[in-house]
């Protein structure tokens, strides 16, 4: 452990409460005394209720978070959360990306990209007992899994009483608790304002996960509804939605040490894995995924030369994969360097020790813990084969063929029995994916990736093989994949891509409506391949569901044991992130990334000037640079900086999905937007280290300054309630 | 200007005194009130006297600084200052470089590398009047230069009354003042202790000029003298020198904000250039030098493949050139980015304004200022030719031939009239250079560099050419240097290197003793080339001396004007560094290298663990790493860090030559050794920026810890006086 606490002593006040935790709103009342001591000025009871202020200002944008900031449906979120809408409207003439966009009137507000939605929680119901009473001890493995899926569908279906209502069942702590969320689903979403990419994406991928950071990662949507106030598809007659509440925006901002609170929808964390699960993840699953990912990146780069059509199509995908690869590398390195596994083993030993100390506990929990160990052991078999088959998702057209084939099969069942992802409610999403496909793939690159993955597949031992796949590509174990055989394989793939009609966008989309028999009769080689693989995929899925079922039986007991153990030590527990609304609390604080270096909690507009090169991602707009040149203290309530702050760091515990989440001060005023975490926080999905886990926030003062001094967004400044 | 002062406010106490200044000891009494207020506890009067404590503990190692730290001649300095002695004794068997060296007894102490010396100042005399009274207004240009050189030789010669005495004349402020220094020259220098290269060079070139830094840059020499106490060449009968005083070593060290003081021999700064001189330097001289340097580096790399004999020979030289190139790039970039030139112009305008405000001042100073402008204009002509001819120094054997030829010519004059560098007193140094030459050069690489430089030369206009050089290589202006001609040129160079006998070490050295006629008659092609170039070189030198003479006439007036102007504004002035003993004062402070980042003033042994890779330059010895694993607060008086500090930053104003200089606390105890400056200090040779100019010091606590816990150097720990 790094003992250097030179600055810690100097800068960190006596915060005894750990800032770890993505708390369920209902847990907040028990944290209230601590929160109040740290600066919270609204009562814990309020924060605990999803349908009261301030939680009822928080919305999910599916993958991002946002907040209402006016009485007329204005939603603030991250620039990168509205990126698809900007790209949708940007062209060589409109130049939305380059110049940014500001709708001077309501009429000028632009429809967001297809599929955009704003989800506002209306009701939350604890349905744990309803579910658990159905889960008899006899329900094992896949049966248990299917029972839960059946209950999920029934609950959701009963809840979704009208078109504008979307319901979801959230499982907590591996199935120890279940909550049913009822959300208003607003689908007429419009783009109101986004700064230029040189502001909103300043630093781009280079600066991602990095500090010092200077990204103006904010933008505004507006929620529109029908004249009756109910959600409705886009229509020019629609009117701005009147949210139940909205956040005031602070022009005073925060200072170092200030209390902050983040309301958002973190997607997933793995804090409560068992030691064996953690080890499997880091010693097998992640390294395997990373290996295939690295090779796919290499192939994409090799076969999408600069300025080629391929390059344009793969740019975004490649950037995404590279980012993920970079982050996974950091994750793996951090795990290697840290004693995370060791700590996890020790915690587990302590838990076991506590369980064994009392016969009742031992009888209740020990078998589940031991069974969990065995289950993890089993998971490591077939791992390579399964990871490899998953990697085939990178061959997009082939992946689409598989999805379409599966979709047709699922349509044979009643809607309520269909697999999640293939129900009626999922069809629009599938259409959207299929429509976008041709802009992001090229047969040439697909063939190279498929060929590489089949080579990898060919090296699997006989027991791991998929006979129909072997037959389809003539790849049976024991056969040599020598140079001629390899050429033959590539030739076959080339012929498949020549013969398939799925490369035609309309044809591809049309298959979504085709019934199952049409697939069996099709001569399309990609659909034939999908058909050949279907039984194996189904078998694999069933195997997975069996495992899931076992996990759903054991994990709640393991988590119950852990919770009881923690409670016995006066430790509070919070469930892993699962996409539901959470509250994270922390304070504005820098950190020491390495010996001799301290990252200060604020960056300023002067840092933009130092980084600006004129070339993306460091192309700060000229108008902004000249505004900075004349910026002064009075522009932002940041006397302690002497200029306008841009981004700040906090100890708040966040992860992906939190993007765009409101960062509030103790009075529940918006002081920033969460948009990233530092690279030291990547391991945070597995363990929160108070010394280095830091969230990166956009500063509300920067947002207001940019709106006022650079982008002339006075209409919105007047619409919002700004606390000066 | 960066307005970010977030941490500044938090961390910087109310230090109102600027830490700029490499003060002459005699200036210190006037600074005393300020120094006392900041923590100095010894009286200013003492610091002002070169022959009293603590200044009489400070020694020059020619290019480095050092200090006596025991009554028996123990000298502490930087590891990199004794590097040549370590290499001299290191071999595959002794492994001094890998393992370090510790002499367990006096008898085991090893003779330092040839040419090592320790110079202790014994007397200092202001000889300004003596010199200036000889400089009549009629003495202009080269005559003035030669007059000063003549006076220099006379004064030095009269001062060097015995073999162990070395005298030097130092010129301050461009000739406004002159001091004659009398120094005891101890030549029996022995290596006592140096840690392993994995400590002393930890971080190597990669970390040079960088923070965070973890270099254990310390080592110990001992001064030996004859039994009579007088300097004498190495002899086994020699005894440790008893210095007039020595420094106590602090085991308590410093904390952030603490006062520090550096005693050392900074080589050269350019703070008092005129605006025109500064512009010439940055717009012409440095870019030209950098261009030739970059090309020479490229050629050395191309023609010294890894693991080749060439690689070994050029490794050190290449590393040195690359470092210089890196630093010059930073220097040029900083100049471009900063408003240094603008500030200099403004200062000069203010000076001119002040001069013109009073007729007496105007009459006295204005002509000199205007003449300086003209002189700088003249200097920019012939600049490319002269820079190019200087670059030929990189062709080492050729350079040696030129030196030998010149040496023979100089020997024709009485010793006192010979050029500096060729007098009797300089012959041993020349021998040493010639002896080392063959280990650092390869004909193949020399030919490539010579060929490149001649190509560059060929592009010069007719007016810039050297007729004899044109003739020698058939390179007259207007001739085409096409592919055949280029091949011919390379062939000629190859033949020269085949035919020359100078590649034989003994032959090369023997020429130092040959009289001038032997050179004229020699058929050696390199000596013939040297002869051919001699008249042009002499002419160039005389031209330079003429310029120098003009400068020696004008600069003192310009500096006198500047001083008077500053005095009128209650500003203290200090002369540019010139290799004489100076005192710098400052405090322990971190800095903000860029927006959002703060460099803390201390690094710790934990940072070594984080950097250690096992491979040089990050090969921390195993013994050290295991000592760190058990290190604790009680090992070093650094409770505020919780572990052992390694290096620290201060605002003290230092530059090259200060390496190894004692860093003292207010009680004049040794708390560290200066060994580098951060990259933001490179521009410091031209301008001191209090926000970012930082010296890097080895922490005395780390030195004592390493000696005690890792290297078992108890003999020295007992010999020194350690303040606990």
Topology at a glance:
Two copies of one chain form a homodimer.
Chain A: H1 6-11, H2 28-38, H3 44-48, E1 58-60, E2 65-68, E3 74-77, H4 83-89, H5 96-99, E4 101-102, E5 110-111, E6 118-126, H6 128-132, H7 141-159, E7 165-172, E8 177-186, E9 188-194, H8 197-200, H9 204-207, E10 219-225, E11 239-240, E12 249-250, E13 259-264, H10 275-302, H11 309-337, H12 340-356, H13 359-379, H14 383-391, H15 396-411, H16 427-436, H17 443-458, H18 467-473, H19 483-499, H20 505-510, H21 516-521, H22 525-568, E14 582-587, E15 591-594, E16 597-599, E17 602-604, H23 605-611, H24 622-629, E18 645-650, E19 662-664, E20 670-677, E21 695-699, H25 700-710, H26 714-719, E22 722-723
Parallel strand pairs in A: 12-22
Antiparallel strand pairs in A: 1-2, 1-6, 2-3, 3-10, 4-9, 5-9, 6-8, 7-8, 9-10, 10-11, 13-14, 13-19, 15-16, 17-18, 18-21, 19-20, 20-21
Helix pairs in contact in A: 7-22, 10-11, 10-12, 10-14, 10-17, 12-13, 13-22, 15-22, 17-19
Descriptive account of the structure:
2 copies of one chain form a homodimer. Chain A is an alpha+beta fold and 724 residues long. Helices cover 45% and strands 15% of the residues of chain A. Chain A contains 26 helices and 22 strands. In chain A, the strands form 4 sheets. In chain A, strands 1, 2, 3, 4, 5, 6, 7, 8, 9, 10 and 11 form an 11-stranded antiparallel β-sheet that branches. In chain A, strands 14-13-19-20-21-18-17 form a 7-stranded antiparallel β-sheet. The longest helix of chain A has 44 residues, at 525-568. Chain A is globular and about 75 Å long. The first copy, chain A, starts with 5 loop residues before the first helix and ends with a strand. Chains A and B meet through helix 1, strand 16, strand 17 and helix 23 of A and helix 1, strand 16, strand 17 and helix 23 of B.
């Amino acid at each position: 452990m790094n003992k250097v606490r030179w600055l810690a002593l100097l800068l960190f006040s006596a915060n005894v409460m750990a800032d770890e935790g993505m708390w369920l709103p209902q847990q907040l009342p028990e944290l209230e005394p601590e929160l109040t001591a740290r600066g919270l000025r609204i009562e814990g009871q309020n924060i605990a209720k999803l349908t009261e202020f301030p939680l009822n200002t928080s919305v999910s944008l599916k993958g991002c978070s946002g907040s209402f900031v006016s009485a007329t449906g204005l939603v603030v979120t991250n620039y990168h959360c509205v990126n698809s809408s900007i790209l949708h409207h940007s062209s060589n003439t409109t130049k939305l990306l380059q110049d940014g966009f500001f709708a001077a009137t309501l009429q000028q507000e632009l429809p967001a990209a297809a599929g955009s939605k704003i989800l506002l929680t209306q009701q939350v119901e604890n349905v744990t007992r309803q579910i658990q009473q159905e889960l008899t001890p006899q329900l094992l493995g896949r049966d248990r899994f299917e029972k839960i899926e059946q209950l999920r569908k029934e609950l959701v279906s009963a809840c979704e009483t009208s078109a504008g209502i979307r319901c979801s069942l959230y499982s907590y702590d591996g199935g120890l608790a279940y909550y049913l969320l009822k959300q208003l689903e607003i689908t007429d979403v419009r783009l109101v304002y986004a700064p230029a990419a040189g502001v909103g994406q300043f630093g781009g991928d280079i600066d991602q996960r990095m500090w010092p950071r200077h990204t103006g990662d904010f933008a505004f949507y507006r929620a529109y509804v029908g004249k009756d106030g109910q959600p409705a598809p886009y229509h020019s007659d629609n009117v701005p939605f009147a949210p139940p509440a909205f956040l005031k925006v602070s022009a005073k901002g925060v200072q170092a040490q200030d209390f902050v609170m983040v309301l958002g929808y973190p997607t997933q964390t793995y804090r409560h894995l068992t030691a064996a699960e953690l080890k499997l993840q880091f010693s097998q699953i992640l390294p395997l995924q990373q290996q295939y990912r690295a090779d796919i990146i290499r192939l994409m780069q090799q076969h999408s030369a600069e300025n080629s059509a391929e390059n344009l199509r793969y740019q975004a995908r490649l950037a995404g994969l590279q980012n993920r690869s970079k982050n996974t590398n950091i994750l793996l390195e951090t795990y290697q360097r840290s004693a995370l596994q060791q700590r996890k083993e020790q915690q587990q030993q302590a838990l076991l020790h506590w369980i064994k100390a009392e016969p009742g506990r031992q009888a209740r929990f020990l078998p589940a813990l031991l069974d969990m160990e065995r289950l993890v052991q089993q998971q490591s078999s077939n791992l390579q084969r399964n990871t490899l088959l998953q990697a085939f998702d990178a061959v997009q057209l082939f992946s689409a063929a598989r999805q379409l084939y599966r979709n047709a099969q699922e349509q044979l069942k009643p809607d309520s029995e269909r697999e999640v992802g293939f129900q009626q409610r999922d069809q629009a999403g599938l259409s959207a994916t299929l429509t976008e496909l041709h802009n992001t793939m090229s047969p040439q690159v697909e063939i190279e990736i498929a060929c590489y993955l089949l080579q990898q597949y060919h090296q699997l031992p006989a027991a791991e093989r998929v006979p129909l796949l072997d037959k389809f590509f003539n790849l049976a174990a024991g056969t040599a994949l020598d140079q001629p055989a390899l050429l033959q394989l590539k030739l076959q793939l080339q012929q498949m891509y020549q013969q398939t009609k799925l490369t035609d966008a309309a044809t591809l989309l049309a298959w979504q409506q085709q019934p199952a028999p049409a697939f069996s009769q099709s001569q399309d080689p990609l659909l034939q391949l999908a058909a050949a693989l279907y039984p194996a995929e189904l078998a694999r899925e069933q195997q997975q569901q069996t495992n899931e079922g076992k996990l759903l039986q054991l994990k709640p007991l393991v988590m119950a044991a852990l919770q009881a153990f923690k409670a016995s030590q006066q430790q509070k527990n919070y469930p892993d992130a699962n996409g539901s609304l959470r509250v994270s609390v922390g304070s504005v604080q820098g950190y020491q990334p390495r010996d001799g270096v301290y990252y200060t909690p604020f960056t300023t507009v002067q840092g933009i000037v130092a980084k600006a090169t004129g070339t993306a991602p460091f192309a700060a707009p000229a108008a902004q640079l000249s505004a900075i040149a004349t910026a002064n203290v009075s522009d932002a309530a940041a006397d302690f900086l002497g200029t306008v702050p841009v981004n700040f760091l906090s100890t708040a515990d966040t992860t992906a999905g939190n993007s765009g989440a409101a960062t509030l001060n103790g009075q529940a005023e918006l002081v920033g937007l969460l948009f990233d975490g530092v690279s030291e926080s990547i391991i945070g999905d597995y363990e929160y280290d108070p010394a280095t886990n830091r969230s990166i926030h956009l500063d509300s003062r920067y947002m207001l300054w940019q709106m006022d001094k650079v982008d002339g967004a006075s209409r919105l400044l007047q619409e919002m309630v700004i606390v000066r």
